[in-house]
Amino acid sequence: MIQPPKPPSRPDKVSLWRYAQLFRSDILSAQPARLYRAWMAEFRTPFFRSYLINQPELVKTVLKDRPDDFPKSSRVSEGLRPLLGNSVFVTNGEVWKRQRRIIDPAFEGGRLRATFPAMWDAAEAAAARLGTHTGAEVEIEGEASHAAADVIFRTLFSLPIEHETARDVFEEFKIYQRSQPILNLAAFLPLPAWMPRLFRRDTKRSAARIRRLITGLTTARAAGIAAGTAPDDLATKIMTTADPLTGERFSTEEMVDQVAIFFLAGHETSASALAWALYLMALYPEWQDRLAAEAQVLERCDFAVMSKLRLSRDVFRETLRLYPPVPMMVRENKCPEEMRNRTVATASQLVLSPWHLHRHTRLWDNPDGFDPARWHTENGKACQRTAYIPFSAGARVCPGAGFAMIEGPLILSRILRDYRISTGAGAAPVPVAHLTVRAADGIRLRIERRER
């Protein structure tokens, strides 16, 4: 079986100084090879202890059994606050619970059916744009980002990506995405709250501009809601939902925070997964042809068609295993813990890594291989339950997980219905971590129109 490109080979030991350098440029390059077979690993810095957790039972404890005892690490959120403020992605405790009580109803099952026409239109638009590149190579990450941003703006604000404000947010976010590493200096140093955080100038400038644009959209929507003219989309649903415990709704500032994370989580992560899925289809033409044949059912906008895209769903699920958009999640323990006969001191950093867990050599059959059929094997079914967390798990599972599993297979199938894709002439893409797992120098694919 052909293997997809693996991460560059890692030494089993990396010095702290080299580790910090690699974290700054690319968190994935800092990972020693032994971590793909370890159940737990300890990292020591002069300021704190960090533990990578791969054992499924421990992952379950942190994410599902006792999530309140393991809040999100503030060290990670420090780097994202210029854009995300106090969004649901970075908050903890009662603030987070209140936010989820307001947000979750917008992503319930029935809402997926209501938002499907907007996703369908975005998929049609993405296919039309690719048609302008027939016979040529295209940088597919850019196309995937365009498609995913279109989905977000259509479903959130009923605006196509061609709308001036939507386009401006999208263009500014491309600058932000490449300038913002997952962790900044605050992840390594115990800086006091009063001390200014160190951010790159272009990162701060992009974040501020994105927030100004989102504020304009949110303010206009609030006026539409007050006038009774607002469309029934996700923004309206969230802005008109009251906390069932307090009766409060989001303020404009709070809504800007949430829209920022919807754009980050709903656009950036979906774009990453779609780009890698298309690349894998270029590597495996037999799977590509199977998905193209299945996609012939995509003739008219009908939510029921998603139940027929079974192969596409398996391929997208396998893509999320090999290239999880969010490669690592960091939690802190609120009290001392005993894990695998180690004493884990309070406020230690607990790293739960889909990047390692999804390729763990002691859990998965053929962990580095591309095999969408694995989800129908006993090993695949077992690992899906215990060692597969592309959207996190438990109380903090991504509220848009169901949304993503409609959007991704739909756009992937719609593209393959009309086009045959193959790898470009350049070198194989190397995965690196910016805000999500991207290719270091992009992904170039050749586009040819497929005879139907």
Strand and helix layout:
Layout: H1 16-25, E1 40-44, E2 49-53, H2 56-65, H3 74-78, H4 81-84, H5 93-103, H6 109-131, E3 136-139, H7 140-157, H8 164-179, H9 201-227, H10 234-239, H11 252-283, H12 285-294, H13 310-322, E4 329-332, E5 337-339, E6 342-344, E7 349-352, H14 354-357, H15 378-386, H16 401-418, E8 419-423, E9 431-433, E10 437-439, E11 444-449
Helix pairs in contact: 6-7, 6-16, 7-11, 8-9, 9-11, 11-13, 11-16, 12-13, 12-16, 13-16
Task: Report on the architecture of this protein.
By secondary structure, the chain is an alpha+beta fold. It has a 4-stranded mixed beta sheet with strand order 1-2-7-4. A 3-stranded antiparallel beta sheet has the order 3-11-8. Strands 5-6 form a two-stranded antiparallel ribbon. Residues 183-198 have low confidence and may be disordered. Strand 1 and strand 2 form a beta hairpin. The chain has helices at 16-25, 56-65, 74-78, 81-84, 93-103, 109-131, 140-157, 164-179, 201-227, 234-239, 252-283, 285-294, 310-322, 354-357, 378-386, 401-418, and strands at 40-44, 49-53, 136-139, 329-332, 337-339, 342-344, 349-352, 419-423, 431-433, 437-439, 444-449. The longest helix is centred in the middle third of the chain and has 32 residues, at 252-283.
